[in-house]
Amino acid sequence: MQSNEAKTNQQFEQVIAECRSLFEKKLHDYGASWRILRPQSLTDQLFIKAKRIRSLEIKKETLVGDGIRPEFVALVNYGIVGLIQVAKGFSDTVDVSNAEAMALYDNYAKEALELMKRKNHDYDEAWRGMRVSSYTDFILTKIERVKEIENLGGDTLVSEGVDGNYMDIINYAVFGVIKLTEEDRS
Which of 5, 84, 103, 176 is the most buried (most CB within 10 A)? Predict the structure, then answer.
């Protein structure tokens, strides 16, 4: 029988594979157009995705199609874009090839997985007992923290920084996808 941590690792990898597939398809269609996003614009993109999830959770209906799950997938992908932008800075032009963008994606997806494994070990699968709406609220909180760090010009006293918040956003969003997938199957 598979341990809970092993099951979580496998589910996390499956969700990341799904997110990666969508990222790669969009990269084909649009190139790395996200390279022009300044930090504040990327934060706002994350905000509108998370805010839409919260709105759908409260209203219990969507008038424009796609539900909550695709928005969590988008948060994973924009979170990884955020990590790339933190590392490389923004650009006035698309300055990475699709192959380089995918290599960067894979690098940060692996970092997110490794962080999740460490935290999941220490927190003993606590995420499984949480509600999906809590992931949404925690993601919105992380986005607010990123806004504050941006407003401070990165001059923080004790914060883990923007990249740490992006990692947490990715991980909570993956947990959201896992939970919603499990709910759909039951």
Answer: 176
